[in-house]
Structures are given as C-alpha cells and as structure tokens.
Design a protein that fits this description.
Length: 292
C-alpha cells in the first residue's frame, strides 16, 4: 500500500475511534444527567377529602391539567415514545396498582414529580410539564392529587424507561435546558387568584394549563423548528387572536374550529380545554387580551 494511502487510512481510523469514543462518552454523561435530577426541598401540602375539593380536583384534571392526556383514561400509563432515536419513554402507571407509581409513593414523591419534575427514583421526568404545574396553588395541587389518588388501581406493568444514543445526548445536553424541569424558575405563592372571569385568574389557568409548552413562555408563539412540542402561534392581540372575538375563542375551545372554518391543530388540546366553564374561558380570554 502506498505510504500516502496508508497514512490516510490510519488517519481515518484514528478519527473514527475518536468520534466513537466521544460519542460514547457523551452518551454516558447524558444518560447520567437524565438519571439524576436535582435535589429539591418539598413544601408540604394538605390532601383534602371534602366533596368540594374533590370536585375541584376532578374538574382541573378533566378540563385544565389533563393527566389522562399522557397517562391514559384510567391513569394506568402508556408508552409515549419507542424509536431508535430516543429509545423507550413511558408515561407511568400512576394508579395504586401493583408496581405502579401510586403503589407506595409518599406525598413527597407525588409533589416532587408533579411540581419539580423529579421521579421517585431521582431521575429527570423529561415529559412531565412541571414548569406549568409548578404554578399550581397548594389547594389546587392537593385537590388534583386527592382526585388522582382515588382512581381505581390498575395492574398494568409497563417496561422501564430505556434511553439510547443519540437521545441521551439530545436530552442530556442539546435540549436539556428546554426540558420542563429546567424551565422552572421559581415556586409560586401557595394560593391562586380568586376564581372569577378576570384576567388574573385567566393568567393562572393559562399557566397551569401547559400553554407555554407550545406557545412560549410569554405566549407570543414559537418559531418553526423549535425543539420540543409542536410550536404554536402568537396568542397576543398582535398575533392569531388579533381579529377574534371572545365568542370565536370560546367556540374554538369547545369545537376545535377557528374563525373561517379552520380546524385547529390536533396538537391543540381543545378536547380538554373545551370542558372548562364559560367563566374560565372568559377569564382566559381576558388574560390573552392583556397581551399587547
């Protein structure tokens, strides 16, 4: 083999070895980062048992926070992703069935998972919208958990999360700052604004309703190609809703049909938000109208 060609072969082999070694090191480091979330101090809350609080929790689950959207109608869990890029990502069975999250979970475990995005085993819950749920008031979090904890137990054994390369690098490094857990900036006061039709309460509903996931932290939309959930449009008066009326908004939330007979994206959870009361939708509209 000519000396020059032999040198090229050696250089390519060395480069390939370096690339494989670097990729493996990033895979291990990314997997380790996702396997160990931050240590968080949990603020204790009360779990109510009165009918009013249980009804409140059931309504918030059904119409705002939508636990069943990921965990299934009976909360027994579902496989969310199973592909060659990320591996296997599971929405856990959160009932009290055998081996499920609710089987032996402490109240601190529930709070840490929902409001902080950290699993019972300490791992980062990459798909838990904890940046939104961090805004839940103590009373509302207690009401939702009281409702969820009363679901019938389901023995639905799901496989454990299994992360693969390059997903470990994407999640552990490239997109880590975009994960819900990383977007939590502060815990909010333990109470929420008075229930009503004004913008303050509407802003609270927008905050806990995971709207920021698709529409951005300021609800002014995300550009195409933004990592994470499908980017949504600008919800301010300068954007999509600028020509809408409140009736248009309520109709769209109830039916999934926007003005001009346009069908909303299937990624928009109108089937959940459509279960809100008229007053709640009016409050959300008031909050959105305040976005200039």
């Amino acid at each position: 083999m000519p000396r020059v060609l032999k040198g090229v072969v050696i250089a390519v082999a060395v480069l390939a070895t370096l690339l494989v070694g670097t990729g493996f090191a990033l895979h291990v480091a990314g997997a380790s980062r996702l396997a160990k979330g931050p240590s968080v101090a949990v603020q204790a809350i009360a779990i109510p048992s009165d009918d009013v609080s249980l009804a409140r929790g059931a309504h918030l689950d059904r119409a705002v926070v939508g636990c069943s959207g990921c965990h299934g109608a009976d909360l027994s869990g579902e496989i969310m992703i199973d592909d060659a890029t990320f591996g296997l990502i599971v929405a856990t069975n959160i009932t009290s069935g055998v081996g499920a999250f609710g089987d032996g979970a402490t109240l601190d475990d529930w709070i840490r998972a929902v409001k902080h995005g950290v699993g019972r085993d300490g791992r980062v819950l990459a798909a838990m919208p904890s940046d939104s749920f961090a805004h839940l008031s103590d009373d509302d979090l207690g009401a939702v958990l009281a409702h969820v904890m009363r679901f019938p137990p389901v023995d639905n054994a799901l496989p454990a999360r299994r992360l693969v390369f390059p997903g470990t690098v994407i999640g552990g490094f490239l997109m880590f700052d975009d994960l819900p857990l990383a977007r939590i900036t502060k815990m909010v006061p333990p109470s929420h604004p008075p229930v009503g039709t004004d913008g303050a309460y509407g802003a609270y509903l927008l905050a806990i309703g995971t709207c920021v996931d698709c529409h951005g932290a300021d609800l002014r939309g995300l550009p195409p190609g933004t990592p994470g959930p499908p980017p949504g449009p600008d919800l301010s008066r300068a954007g999509t809703l600028g020509s809408w009326t409140e009736s248009d908004f309520v109709h769209a939330m109830r039916t999934g049909i926007a003005p001009g007979a346009r069908t909303l994206s299937p990624d928009m959870p109108f089937a959940t938000f459509g279960k809100m009361t008229d007053d709640e939708l009016s409050a959300m509209w008031a909050a959105l109208q305040a976005l200039h």
